[in-house]
Specification:
Elements (H helix, E strand, L loop, with lengths): L17 H17 L9 E5 L5 H5 L8 E4 L2 H8 L7 E4 L8 H4 L3 E7 L2 H13 L4 E6 L16 H6 L7 E7 L8 H21 L4 E7 L6 H6 L4 E4 L1 H4 L4
Parallel strand pairs: 1-2, 1-8, 2-3, 3-4, 4-5, 5-6, 6-7
Length: 243
C-alpha cells in the first residue's frame, strides 16, 4: 500500500508579527535594489515558507510577496488548502521521483532538476496533467559531495537532451552554496554560476530559455544578487525579530 506524503510534518512557526515581516521584507528588498547586477532588474525575492504556518504566509500577500518556496511534500501540501490562491509555489528542495506526482499540478516552477531520471518522471507526470513545467537545473558549483545538483561540466550535455521532454521547459539554473564559506569564496562561486548561466544562454538550445538564475539565501543573498542572481530564496531573514 502506497504511503501518504503527509505524515510527520514538523512544528511550524506561527509567532511572526505582521510588522516584523513588513520591516524585514522592506529591508531585504532595499538590499536587493542596492545590489543590482549590471542593468538587470533587482533580484526577485522568493519567500522560503517551509518553517512557517499558513497564517504567516498569508501575511506576505499585502506586502506583494506572492512567490513562496517549499521543499517537503508533507509540509507544503496541507498549507495549500489554507493559503490564499494567489501564491505561486516554487519547489526548492531535492525532489524524489516518488514525490513528483504529489506536487506536479501545484508548482509554478521546479528549481531542483538534477538528474535524468527525475526529468523523465516530471515530464511524464506533467503530461498527464497537460502542463508545461518551468524548471531550473540545479548545479553543484562547489563540488560538495553532500550537495544536490550536477557538476558544471554535465550541464550542457544534460540541457541538450531536454529537446525530447515536451512537458518541461528549462528556464535557467539554480545552486546552493557551502555553509560557512567566506564572502570572497561565495563571490567567486556566484560569479562562476553567472558565467555558466550566460554560456548556456548563448548555446540557443531547444526547450531551453536561460531566464532565471536562482541563488542566494538568508546569509548570502546580497552577494548573490550583486553577482547576477535573478531570484534569491530567503527564509530566516524574513522572520527574525531584530529587536
Amino acid at each position: 500500500m502506497e504511503q501518504s506524503p503527509l505524515k510527520a510534518a514538523p512544528l511550524l512557526r506561527d509567532d511572526v508579527a505582521a510588522e516584523v515581516l513588513r520591516q524585514n521584507v522592506e529591508g531585504i528588498q532595499a538590499i536587493l535594489e542596492k545590489n543590482r547586477y549590471q542593468d538587470q532588474e533587482p533580484a526577485k525575492l522568493i519567500a522560503v515558507t517551509k518553517t512557517v504556518t499558513p497564517r504567516v504566509i498569508n501575511q506576505l500577500k499585502p506586502l506583494k510577496i506572492l512567490d513562496i518556496g517549499e521543499n517537503r511534500a508533507q509540509v507544503a501540501l496541507p498549507k495549500l488548502e489554507e493559503i490564499e490562491p494567489d501564491f505561486r509555489l516554487h519547489w526548492i528542495g531535492r525532489l524524489q521521483t516518488n514525490k513528483v506526482k504529489y506536487i506536479i499540478d501545484k508548482v509554478c516552477m521546479l528549481h531542483t532538476l538534477d538528474r535524468l531520471q527525475l526529468a523523465q518522471e516530471v515530464n511524464r507526470r506533467a503530461a498527464e496533467h497537460e502542463r508545461l513545467i518551468p524548471t531550473l537545473v540545479q548545479v553543484n558549483i562547489s563540488g560538495e559531495e553532500q550537495k544536490g545538483g550536477m557538476p558544471p561540466q554535465e550541464v550542457l550535455p544534460f540541457l541538450k537532451q531536454m529537446k525530447d521532454f515536451s512537458s518541461i521547459r528549462i528556464q535557467g539554473l539554480m545552486s546552493i552554496m557551502p555553509l560557512g564559506a567566506e564572502p570572497y569564496q561565495l563571490r567567486e562561486l556566484f560569479a562562476g554560476m553567472r558565467r555558466l548561466f550566460d554560456q548556456m544562454r548563448l548555446e540557443g538550445l531547444d526547450h531551453v530559455e536561460m531566464q532565471e538564475l536562482s541563488m542566494g539565501m538568508s546569509g548570502d543573498y546580497a552577494i548573490a544578487a550583486a553577482e547576477g542572481a535573478t531570484m534569491v530564496r530567503v527564509g530566516t531573514a524574513l522572520y527574525q525579530d531584530k529587536h
